[in-house]
Write a structure and sequence with these properties.
Layout (H helix, E strand, L loop, with lengths): L1 E6 L3 H9 L6 E4 L8 H4 L4 E2 L8 H11 L6 H20 L14 E2 L9 E2 L6 H13 L3 E4 L3 E8 L2 E8 L5 E11 L20 H9 L3 E2 L4 E10 L2 E5 L2 H5 L3 E4 L18 H13 L4 E4 L6 H4 L1 H9 L9 E10 L2 E3 L11 E3 L4 E2 L12 H17 L25 H8 L6 H10 L12 H22 L22 E6 L2 E6 L10
Parallel strand pairs: 1-2, 1-9, 2-6, 9-17, 16-18
Antiparallel strand pairs: 3-5, 4-5, 7-8, 8-9, 10-16, 10-19, 11-12, 11-15, 13-14, 14-15, 19-20
Helix pairs in contact: 1-5, 1-11, 3-4, 4-11, 6-14, 12-13, 13-14
The structure holds flavin-adenine dinucleotide.
Length: about 500
């Protein structure tokens, strides 16, 4: 029996382990090796208001604007204030952020930030550096269980009491724990086009759903405009910085696709650029990034240059095929401000959690920060070792469900639940892939992996079908504008069905 069982070893899971006292017994489970995660891929950095002319309040205002008036104002306040303190603490303890010749952190600027506030480590390797730092800090205090895929959450008398896992040999075990934490990351792999790592297949959503937890804001997925895409396969991210250096987006005839669409051309807001590129692809008109004229490309973007060469395309002489792909999930398992879910002894942090700080659209570089802040908040909660009573839910499992074949599911997610959505496509999707509630342990390991992808995809499609407006990352061609009726409304799903709640959203007077 462990005190704490953490499912996931990215920034959220490891920061939690780091912040917990060594007197607690802690297990950290990862589906693959400890280095495979979205955290390891994070290039941009961590947003934090360190510059003399910046402040947490300005950071909060930028965040609220980016989130399309859907973020939870009080949680955003926690994020920007506590985030600053945590990052300063990590810096003082030796996390090697990049500094300038005066010894001050080198702060970069990103879209929708009004100030320079992006901290980097190792240039474009911030996530990897953070991961290595947290791994080294936690190596003596946790039991690491790599290649342990969680199949099901064990619920006893309405409380989470442990997990059922499959180890690297496919053998099943139960791991018992007083507290179980979902830190399973994102959902990009549910789509055929994505920037995400192989482990970001939305397992946490399905695990939480089958345990009876409430999920929310699932329709809000952020799509990155320029995923390097070869023969329909995602081959890595080509960061916005390349367009910032002057790269053009062109179609196969060399025509700039952003011309006449937006005055900022290639530097228009991310969602607009992404939709334009996707429209062209859907008309069988592939879109390319033309970076051939960028001076010293190979020195400015060494990782991107090396990645392109590894796929046989040289950015100095050739066009780079790009297509939007799923990048970040704003929604997830509903939590309070210390990471508690609706199920006692089950918690969620990091990208799998819906804390409300990202609203309908994440502000760039706020997600590593969220992982750090809410992991530390949860650690403080877990120190109190409170055991809450659960309620038995009497929903019967469905029997002998045959799940539809998954081979087309990722493609259908991209086409029907992707960056451009239509009511008819969403209804088609949820008709072909209805949500089922089953006892997971009745199925084989392989079937459960399939059920996780299936269920998480269906839940996202269902929420997208219900939100009859466009907001942030959720764009409906049949409802192309935001509607006052939906302002502040949150779609919740659980085994009990759908509920709509209201969130305390932007109120400028309350921003301190
Ligand atoms: C290409 C890219 C660039 C990005 N750049 C930035 C950036 O510059 N700044 C920023 O703030 N954010 C960035 N993000 C987003 C950010 O990286 C993620 O939101 C964040 O790292 C998520 O951390 P996490 O700990 O929640 O999940 P992850 O780091 O993805 O970790 C998930 C963990 O859960 C484990 N897991 C999953 N399912 C199971 C299961 N069933 N059983 C056991 N273990 C399981 C995995 O093995 C993994 O260890 C970027 C994302 C991508 C993809």
């Amino acid at each position: 029996m462990y005190d704490i069982c953490i499912i996931g070893g990215g920034v959220a899971g490891l920061m939690l382990a780091h912040s917990l006292p060594s007197s607690m017994s802690i297990a950290v489970l990862t589906k693959e090796d400890p280095f495979t995660s979205n955290t390891a891929l994070a290039q941009g950095g961590i947003a934090v208001s360190l510059a003399p002319d910046d402040s947490p309040s300005i950071h909060a205002i930028d965040t609220m604007h980016a989130t399309a008036h859907h973020a939870h104002i009080e949680r955003v306040e926690l994020l920007v204030h506590e985030g600053k303190t945590i990052v300063e603490k990590l810096m003082s303890k030796g996390l090697p952020f990049d500094i300038n010749s005066n010894g001050f952190p080198n702060l970069g600027q990103e879209a929708a930030h009004t100030q320079r506030r992006i901290l980097h480590a190792g240039g474009d390797q911030t996530g990897k550096m953070l991961l290595h730092y947290l791994l080294s800090q936690t190596q003596d205090k946790v039991t690491r269980l790599p290649f342990h895929a969680v199949l099901e959450l064990n619920i006893t008398e309405g409380r989470c009491t442990g997990v059922l896992v499959s180890d690297g040999h496919g053998h099943r075990h139960n791991i018992h724990a007083k507290h179980v934490v979902l830190a399973t990351g994102g959902i990009g792999q549910l789509f055929s086009q994505t920037s995400n790592s192989s482990v970001a297949s939305g397992d946490g959503l399905s695990l939480a759903y089958h345990a009876g937890a409430i999920l929310e804001d699932l329709e809000f997925v952020q799509f990155h405009p320029t995923i390097f895409s070869i023969n329909g396969k995602s081959c890595g991210l080509i960061s916005e910085a390349v367009r910032g250096e002057g790269a053009f987006l062109v179609n196969q005839d060399g025509v700039r696709v952003m011309k006449d669409v937006h005055p900022l051309l290639e530097l228009a807001p991310r969602d607009i650029v992404a939709r334009v590129i996707e429209w062209h692809w859907q008309k069988n008109d592939p879109v390319y990034l033309d970076a051939r004229h960028i001076h010293r490309f190979e020195q400015k973007f060494p990782s991107i240059y090396a990645n392109c060469l590894s796929y046989g395309i040289n950015p100095l002489y050739e066009l780079l095929p790009v297509r939007p792909g799923a990048h970040f999930h704003m929604g997830g398992v509903q939590t309070n401000d210390v990471g508690e879910t609706s199920i006692p002894q089950l918690y969620a942090i990091g990208e799998i959690a819906s804390t409300g700080v990202h609203g309908a659209n994440r502000l760039a570089s706020n997600s590593l920060l969220e992982g750090l802040v809410f992991a530390e908040r949860l650690a403080n909660r877990l120190r109190e070792n409170i055991i809450r009573n659960g309620l038995n839910h009497e929903i019967p499992f469905e029997k002998e469900v045959i799940y539809n074949n998954q081979t087309t599911m990722q493609l259908r997610m991209t086409e029907q639940v992707g960056i451009i959505r239509q009511g008819s496509g969403l209804i088609d999707f949820i008709t072909d892939f209805p949500i089922h509630f089953v006892r997971l342990s009745d199925y084989t390991n392989q079937e459960i992996q399939h059920i996780h992808r299936y269920t998480s995809s269906s839940l996202i499609a269902k929420s997208a079908s219900l939100r009859t407006e466009s907001r942030g990352g959720h764009y409906r061609q049949d409802y192309p504008t935001s509607s006052n009726e939906w302002t502040g409304k949150v779609i919740e799903q659980s085994i009990h069905g759908v509920a709509i709640s209201t969130r305390e959203i932007e109120n400028k007077e309350t921003i301190k």
